[in-house]
Structure prediction request, 258 residues.
Amino acid sequence: MQKQNTITLSEAGRKAIEARAIAFELKKKKQKERAAKQFISKLEQHSGVPLRYRELKLADYILDTKESKIVYSRVKNYIKKFEELKQIGCSLVFCGRPGTGKTHLACSLANELIQTGERVLYTTVYKAISEVKATYSKESEKTEAEVIKAFQEPALLILDEVGVQFGSEVEKMIFYQIINGRYESILPTLIISNLNNKNLSAFIGERTMDRLRECGGAVLAFEWESFRAKNRRIKNRNNSESALKQFVKHNIDPFETP
Prediction:
């Protein structure tokens, strides 16, 4: 009888140990999940992605033309293969008509990569160049090399509004230094411009464009109608149709001379 009690106590002890082990693993899992969320949150806060675009996902992008569907597919594939593409420094260029969702799609891409733990930095070229030029002041606490080096750290750097700056050769050289620094470090860059492919190449120079095209880098042309212009056109058409219905309802001839 005493022997049986000893066995029973051993089983109870084993179950208690198992329960404690399970509780410990669950606690570790929760801590890991919490740490991962904090890490992602930190990446989001330091990404530079504007608040307007910070919640966007790739699925939010409007696909209403054949061309936009092709671009969307290329970007989706880029995200899917980013782990291997970043190893060869494969870049992207979004260029074309304003209002076609270039910044929207680029920020969606950034948000998707951040969720996988990748460090992404979004900025405008004007801001990037201003940060470098600020180091020319005697009061600056940073050197030009330190600021440019900071642009070499993210897994992906997104430079928006290419084509609305470069007032001098110095600014062109700063832009080239940023692109070339990432190129030499085998790091991908995404640039966004309202210029078309030909004008963009002329604006930033073939030398810079060649670096962006190397290793399979793609130039994606956004040449469909502006979403904003299209929305205004639809809104105006709806307003006109509504007004016409009111004329008809009240037996008023909109073309009758009073």
